[in-house]
Structure formats: structure tokens, C-alpha cells
Amino acid sequence: MAVVVPLSGLSQSSPFFRWRLDVPGTPQAVAFSKDGKAFFIGNGDSSIREYDANTGALVRQVTGLPGPVGALAVSPDGQYLASSSFVFEGGSGPDHTIHLWHTADLSPVTVLSGHTSSVLDVDFSPDGQYLVSAGDDTTVRVWRVSDWTLSTTQIVGQFVSCMRARFIPGRQQIATVDFVGNLRLWSAPGLSPLGQLNTFRSSFLGAFAVSPDGNQALVSSFNGVSWVDLNNLTQVQTTTKIMQGYDAVFSSSGHTALIVGLPFTSTDPTLEVWNAVSKSLLVNLVLPDGFSTKIAMGCRRRPGVDGQFGMALESLGFGSGQAGLAQIPDFTSGVRK
């Protein structure tokens, strides 16, 4: 059952969740339906659960999948949910496929096979014609949505996992980031190489996000946050920090960016709020009581509702994880909107 938390100002001491609830297993990924009414959780207990985004009530679930669900994506037309299975830390899981579901009732559509190891990320193209997948097998692959067949495959680097893959809004390009922080641009859907930038040397990538206008990207790893201008593939700013980022997302305006993760010096999950215009850290929040000894694994923007984000938190030990709907103000040049 959801616990409703009153909204108040964004501060270290004030709660900012509209609702939060215990979730069986270890939540690792989140996604929203196109209309923002449904909230999907990909879980380490090999399940996908759908919740009412307004109340946190469980709507339906799919259990008994071949492996822990670590990545989710919803198609632009809202018809399909893509899921993939992987073990976030600890190597390849038992399932190397991508599952497609009807968002209306979580009934299965098809299963995509081709990767030879865990699929670490999935994303739909803005026009909904293609799906991109990032693999622990060092490849990035593009699939046709029209008939769910493989379109193109590229190797991102020898012995280096492709950790993240995102279509870039407003241009026919895909951005990928590998295990050691190499950001590569590819043509879409053909995957011709367009350029490469090393954002962090020999540092495990944790979080990656592309701004809504497609002009910049945020890369977070063990040792810092890097802001990249995607127009000329240059590193604009790098900030050193001691936190493992697990996921990142921009606000709908692109003015604010959130990074969720776990500091090396604490067992309390942290949410960082950044001004994406000035590239400055605005607030570093330890999540409210009840979230201790959990890792903030997933964070996604709720469509159609400014400032609302779904979050998933995995337990560091035994017991259930948690999920919640957070209300985070937008910022422009450091001023709350």
C-alpha cells in the first residue's frame, strides 16, 4: 500500500514524495506510460509491475521472466514497453533477450534475440520506428519496430561493454557510452561512426542522460560528472565527486538534471539536483527516512506533469526495495521556477 507524503519545499529536511511504497524484490528500472498515468517498475525478482502513477496502487504484474529486469523503455506512441534483463553489478545474467509488451495490459508482443550477453539498456527512436539496445557483449544494435527484426549491429570496442544507448532528439543520431566512459555518436539507424570522446579515463560509467533538445549529455561515473556538447562532441565541464551515479534524467525544460546514486561514504541513497544551464550542483539530498541502506537505481520524468519523477530504490541487504513519485522543482540559472 502506498504511503502518501505531503509535499513541501525542496530541502534536506523536508520530504518531497507524493507517495512511496515498498516493492517486493529489488527495483532497478522505471518507466512511465505515454500519458503519464501508469508507472512501470523493472525488478530484480524477474518481474515487471505496473502502478497507478497518481496513487501508487498496484495495477498488474508479470512475473517469472528469465532474469532480473534492469532496463525499461516505452515507445513514443505509447503502445509498447521494452524490457531487458541484466545484473547491474556482477556480470552477465541468464537472459540475453529483449522482451516487448503491450502497455495496455502487459501482454507479450515478441522477444528479440541476438545479443550474446546481458542487454544493459534499451531506447526507442523519437519517431517510434526503431529500438536501440546496448549489450554487455560489446555491441549496440538497432531493431525495426515494424516487424521487430534486426536492422544494424556495431561493436563499440574490444572487450568493453556498451553500457548505455540513447537516440538523440532532433537528429538522426544515437549516443552510446561504454564501460570506461567513451561516448560515441552514430548515425541512426545505420550506425555509421560519427565521433568519439573519452569522458572519464578508466572509470566505470553509472549514469547517462541526453537533454530534451538533443544539445547536451550528462555522464556520471565513479569519479565525477561530465557535461558534453553533442553539437561538436566536446567536454564542456567536468566536476569531481565521490558518488556512484546509477541513473540520470533531465527535466522537461532541460533546465534541471537529476542524478541518483549512492555516496562512497554512506549507506544512504542520494539525489543530486543540478542546474543544467550553469552546470552547477544546486542540492545534494539524502533521501527521506525509510530509504536508508537502499541504492537509488532508477529515475525517469513523468510525461505531461512538470517536475514529477518516478524513482526506484534497491535494498542493500535483505528485504523489499521501494518506489516513489517525487516532486522536484525546475530551475533556471539557479532560480526556482
Percent helix among the residues?
under 10%
Largest sheet: 5 strands, antiparallel
Low-confidence stretches: 1-15, 88-92, 289-293, 332-337
The beta-strand count equals 31
- Kindly state the mean pLDDT as a whole number? 82
Number of helices: 0
Q: Numbering strands along the chain, what is their spatial order in the largest sheet? A: 1-2-29-28-27
First CA to last CA: what distance? Answer: 32 Å
Question: What would you call the structural class?
Answer: mainly beta
Q: In words, what does this structure look like?
A:
This protein has no helices and 31 strands. The chain is mainly β and 337 residues long. The chain has a domain at 17-60 and 242-337. Helix content is 0%, strand content 55%. The two termini are 32 Å apart. It has a five-stranded antiparallel sheet, with no helix packed on it. A four-stranded antiparallel sheet has the order 3-4-5-6, with no helix packed on it. It is globular, with a radius of gyration of 18 Å.
